[in-house]
Design brief:
Homodimer. InterPro entries: 2-IPM_HCS-like, 2-isopropylmalate_synth_dimer, AIPM/Hcit_synth_CS, Aldolase_TIM, LeuA/HCS_post-cat, LeuA_allosteric_dom_sf, LeuA_bact_synth, PYR_CT. Keywords: Acyltransferase, Amino-acid biosynthesis, Branched-chain amino acid biosynthesis, Cytoplasm, Leucine biosynthesis, Manganese, Metal-binding, Transferase. Catalyzes the condensation of the acetyl group of acetyl-CoA with 3-methyl-2-oxobutanoate (2-ketoisovalerate) to form 3-carboxy-3-hydroxy-4-methylpentanoate (2-isopropylmalate). By secondary structure, this protein is an alpha/beta fold. Helices cover 39% and strands 20% of the residues. It is built from 16 helices and 16 strands. It has an eight-stranded parallel barrel with strand order 2-3-4-5-6-7-8-9, surrounded by nine helices. Strands 11-12-13 form a three-stranded antiparallel sheet. Strand 15 and strand 16 form a beta hairpin. The model has no long low-confidence stretch (mean pLDDT 89).
């Protein structure tokens, strides 16, 4: 009988800490439901003490999720733990994840505390969290650079206080796989009461080793891995859920454990997270990249046609890649649309919301012959973008681009009900369009990123554009989709401007880089 490897997904918390990747409450609930369908064991929904918005998002996820454990992060402070406990009240199964830094540099430079004080805070935090739930997790932040003797002391103490999951984070992505695996083995062996807790790992990807470090830890006794969809996360990201899960699943001859995930939901969940956050998946990304199961070499193609296993170690269908999808079109009815959206995990709040989505679907169907699942995901995401703080709207866009002439654009937008028109020239149709919009909104923001990704194949495919704006220390992502890439770009820019001017900046008292 193989051990169970617990999958702890922190896309909604650590993933959201990627610059520009903040999610609304409703978006968090959509992703949480997708994770629940995948049978993820623990969903870390956020950091309730960070802001009122984060509190409400954790609360909404806790109320919506029935089959997965919902977790809230809290520093080792009474106010943080109480806030997390309050946010998680409605959860069928809840967990409080509390942490405090344990590396010498963090204790001295950040906390200004002595080691004994850090242990005191950790024990008190675990005991207070136990007032809200029996499921308490503790993390020694920056464990990868902490002294092993001190880790043994603090972890033994928090187990005695009631912590039942011990998470060992490589907070800054500093560890090497062999070293990190040995640390896990040593902690399990040296801590007298280690048998009373599950050891977990949370690895960052600063040196590209997050998955390797996580798997090395699993080989040395860790039975929970903290990870994110698409490897989203602070700085270079976190261990990628899909890579960890499929490595363990594919190499059953090597690992003495397996997850309980429905891996057929991986690709759908990946696309949803990419669509909501505006972080496209690179084509050569393992498992979920567009090229992950593509073969161009003649030798490879010949081998796969003769026997799939010559060049494929996994079946594409096992992670959710399939060509057997229901394709909707302009003749599809409202019921077929609603049924397919439900299968994709989208539930409408009422008839008005369904009617609006169906109207958008029909508009898109008039532009392109076949509507795929990815189109539907983008359609709903765009509906969410426009619903949130949309005081600027695109009304009309006219672009002229011809050989030998400088491209120019005329754009009309509606700002709080008042229409404004502006014109600009640029190096291309997109450049001219964005400059025309900027001439009206006057944000003064720097365009830090412009990315285009096709949602499906074909010349009539929707283009999904992501823009990143930076202004006065704020970073926001904007997304837009359309069969016309210039219009998609204008939508994305306006979406980012709406976010920039909304004033709803997430406040992190401490980002929780565990």
């Amino acid at each position: 009988m193989k051990d169970k490897l617990i999958i702890f997904d922190t896309t909604l918390r650590d993933g959201e800490q990627s610059p520009g990747a903040s999610m609304t409450r409703d978006e968090k609930v959509r992703i949480a439901r997708a994770l629940e369908r995948m049978k993820v064991d623990v969903i870390e929904a956020g950091f309730p003490a960070a802001s009122q918005g984060d509190f409400e998002a954790v609360q909404a996820v806790a109320d919506a999720i029935k089959d997965s454990t919902v977790c809230g992060l809290a520093r080792a402070l009474d106010k943080d733990i109480d806030r997390a406990g309050e946010a998680l009240k409605g959860a069928q199964s809840s967990r409080i994840h509390t942490f405090i830094a344990t590396s010498p540099i963090h204790m001295q430079k950040k906390l200004n505390m002595q080691p004994d004080q850090v242990i005191e805070y950790a024990v008190r935090a675990v005991k207070r969290a136990r007032q809200y739930t029996d499921n308490v997790e503790f993390s020694p932040e920056d464990a990868g650079r902490s002294e092993e003797d001190f880790l043994c002391r603090i972890l033994e103490a928090v187990i005695d206080a009631g912590a039942r999951t011990l998470n060992i984070p490589d907070t800054v992505g500093y560890s090497m796989p062999q070293q990190f695996g040995a640390t896990i083995a040593n902690l399990i062996q040296r801590i007298p009461n280690s048998d009373k807790a599950i050891f977990s790992v949370h690895c960052h990807n600063d040196l590209g080793l997050a998955v390797a470090n996580s798997l090395a830890a699993v080989m040395n006794g860790a039975r929970q891995v903290e990870c994110t969809i698409n490897g989203l996360g602070e700085r270079a990201g976190n261990a990628s859920l899909e890579e960890v899960v499929m490595a363990v699943r594919t190499r059953q001859d090597f690992f003495g454990c397996d997850t309980g995930l429905d891996t057929r939901e991986i690709v759908t969940c990946s696309k949803l997270v990419s669509s909501i956050t505006g972080f496209p998946v690179q084509p050569n990304k393992a498992i979920v990249g567009a090229n992950a199961f593509a073969h161009e070499s003649g030798i490879h193609q010949d081998g796969v046609l003769k026997n799939r296993e010559t060049y494929e170690i996994m079946r594409a269908e096992d992670v959710g890649w399939t060509t057997n999808r229901m394709v909707l079109g302009k003749h599809s009815g409202r019921n077929a649309f609603k049924t397919r959206m439900a299968e994709l995990g989208v539930d409408f709040a009422g008839e008005a919301e369904l009617n609006d989505a169906f109207f958008r679907f029909k508009q898109l169907a008039d532009k392109k012959h076949e509507i795929f699942d990815e189109d539907l995901q983008a359609l709903i995401s765009e509906q969410g973008f426009e619903a949130e703080d949309e005081h600027i709207k695109l009304v009309a866009l006219k672009v002229c681009s011809e050989t030998g002439e400088v491209p120019n654009a005329t754009v009309t937008i509606r700002v709080d009900g008042k229409e404004m028109t502006g014109c600009a020239q640029g190096g291309g149709a997109v450049d001219a369009s964005l400059k025309a919009i900027e001439s009206l909104v006057k944000t003064g923001a720097i365009l830090a990123l412009y990315s285009v990704n096709n949602i499906t194949n074909g010349t009539d495919a929707q283009g999904e554009v992501t823009v990143r704006l930076e202004h006065a220390g704020r970073i926001v992502n904007g997304s837009g989709a359309d069969t016309d890439i210039v219009i998609a770009s204008a939508k994305a820019y306006i979406n980012a401007v709406n976010k920039l001017q909304s004033g709803n900046q997430r406040q992190h008292p401490q980002k929780g880089d565990v």
